[in-house]
Amino acid sequence: MPLILGIVASGNYPRVTNSYESIATVSVGSGGSSSISFSAIPSTYKHLQVRAISKNSSSTNTNAVLSLNGNAIGYRHYIYGDGSSTGAGAAANGEGVISATSSASNVFGAFVMDILEYTNTNKNKTVRVLQGVDENGSGVVAFNSFLYSTNTNAITSLTLTSSGTSFVQYSHFALYGIKG
Question: What is the 3-state secondary structure (H, E, C) of the chain?
Fold first, then answer.
């Protein structure tokens, strides 16, 4: 314990100040939107984060499908629980599926998505998503991880497309840059 106190007292411990910066936001208007996009993403950050609340206009639960630079995601691992069951698995289906959208009346799902080292051209990109929705006891919480394996290009755009009909009014998506 004295070592930790000594480090803290000396001021030589890592300080994180202003590490997140807002890049852009999208709020869905009264007509809804089948997809939202962030383009011309600056390359001045270490990582990206998207924070969202969303609801779809379909009568059944649907997903948000992620594409990076116009390309589908290659591989996905997931784990989820819904209060009565759990599941896990992997898929190489070519789409990044985020299941935190809700069809229930007045209920929005939420997710936080991190895109790690999005400008590093020496490796494939990794995306992780923590998501959930509570539909009065029948919701779900899940964790997904994706490998963007199409190429090693820097990420300059991302699109989320509703696999249902559309994201409804008041769905909100915010893109942040995380300093390294």
Answer: CHHHHHHHHHCCCCCCCCCEEEEEEEECCCCCECEEEECCCCCCCCEEEEEEEEEECCCCCCCEEEEECCEECCEEEEEEECCCCEEEEEECCCCEEECCCECCCCCCEEEEEEEECCCCCCCCEEEEEEEEECCCCCCEEEEEEEEECCCCCCCCCEEEEECCCCECCCCEEEEEEECC
